[in-house]
Design brief:
By secondary structure, this protein is an alpha+beta fold. The protein has 11 helices and 20 strands.
Length: about 375
């Protein structure tokens, strides 16, 4: 009888420990394995749960990858060699599945159905459709649909380029520019060219080094990025510009306030791959709405408040970024934002705090159980 009591106590302790550990790992898996938001591996935008279920990307080893749109998925191919992409029609929804198999070796593209069509555009404005009828209906609805993630459910141009999904794959997956952005040396940008009207004629459209989107002449004028060697680099938005600090030992970023305009210049000097940041003025604020077209830079808190209230300045915010700022926009100092993108040193994995707590609870349970059992044995 006494042995049974001890066994019961130990069994109860073991059950409590097992349940707690499984719950903790389930929570961790939910945070890391796709239930919560992820970050697009190509452009850095947020990939919410809707986007994850809408666009599933798996490499040849069975590893899942997270992307914000189909164009970003295509651009992962040079890094991974082979991809299996499963998505569904932006107009018809999940009942009309589209599968795309890509293999860099041999430029192999297999699309089912072959009628699938891609509407080209930025990360938020490209679409995939099951057939031409879905394309027509989507255009008639200005590019919006109940099946799109909130961040993508925006109006698209009526004259957007349309091509088959196979053609889009050949353009973005196998193009030399898909895996790397041009790094031409242009020398420092003229310091007096901060006005959008003063764009130097030598500029041509580039590719963003971070997200791969087009960097227009206006983008290049607003976001001037030069490394310690005098080489110019290109970013499509301020978030991408700040992400560049972790790529180079010495970087200078010059831009101007989205609310006050070119008369209020903001500079960032980064050294040691973003670990040391100097910002002028120190009052500069970064407003991160979660994507390339909904982030802003403000000269001070007053400008930040005006941008939060109005979304953008019709005079100074770039045309492709004129969208309202979402509820919950993250507002930090430019310095803190830049530091968050710094190159992180690798550290050995640590034991989660939750598991340490559980181990402590388990120890207490076992000790208490042992005391109870001992008293019963003496009795």
């Amino acid at each position: 009888m006494k042995q049974k009591i001890v066994a019961y106590v130990l069994l109860i302790a073991f059950s409590i420990i097992s349940t707690s550990i499984m719950a903790t790992f389930a929570e961790m898996q939910g945070m890391q394995g796709g239930v919560g938001s992820q970050t697009c591996e190509q452009c850095g935008m947020t990939v919410d749960s809707v986007s994850q279920s809408h666009l599933m990307v798996v490499d040849s080893t069975g590893t899942s990858h997270y992307v914000e749109c189909l164009k970003c998925a295509f651009k992962l191919l040079p890094k991974l060699g082979a991809l299996n992409i499963t998505t569904y029609c932006d107009w018809y929804g999940p009942n009309n599945t589209i599968t795309i198999n890509l293999k860099e070796d041999g430029n192999i593209v297999a699309v089912n159905p072959t009628s699938a069509i891609f509407i080209d555009g930025s990360c938020m404005k490209n679409r995939v459709c099951y057939n031409q009828t879905a394309v027509d209906d989507l255009f008639a609805n200005n590019g919006t649909s109940p099946y799109l993630a909130t961040i993508q459910n925006v109006t698209i141009p009526a004259n957007a380029t349309v091509m088959t999904v196979a053609q889009a794959a050949m353009k973005y997956a196998f193009s030399p520019s898909a895996s790397a952005s041009p790094m031409e040396s242009m020398g420092p940008m003229p310091t007096n060219s901060m006005s959008p009207e003063a764009s130097p004629t030598v500029l041509t459209t580039k590719s963003c080094e971070v997200c791969g989107m087009d960097v227009t002449l206006a983008d290049q004028v607003k976001y001037q990025i030069v490394d310690g060697n005098g080489t110019a680099h290109y970013a499509e938005c301020y978030m991408c510009a700040l992400r560049i600090v972790n790529k180079y030992n010495d970087v200078n970023i010059t831009t101007y306030c989205d609310w006050y305009g070119p008369n209020k210049t903001i500079t960032v000097h980064s050294t040691n791959y973003g670990s040391q940041i100097t910002v002028t003025p120190s009052t500069a604020m970064f407003l991160n709405g979660g994507s390339c077209v909904i982030n802003r830079v403000a000269y001070d808190q007053t400008a930040a408040n005006n941008l939060l209230a109005n979304g953008y300045s019709s005079q100074y915010t770039l045309p492709e970024q004129c969208y309202p700022m979402p509820t919950g926009t993250n507002v930090t100092s430019v310095k803190d934002a830049a530091l968050s993108f710094a190159q992180k040193p690798s550290t050995p994995a640590s034991i989660p705090t939750a598991l340490i707590v559980i181990a402590g609870i388990a120890a207490v349970v076992i000790v208490v159980g042992a005391v109870v059992a001992f008293k019963k044995l003496k009795a």
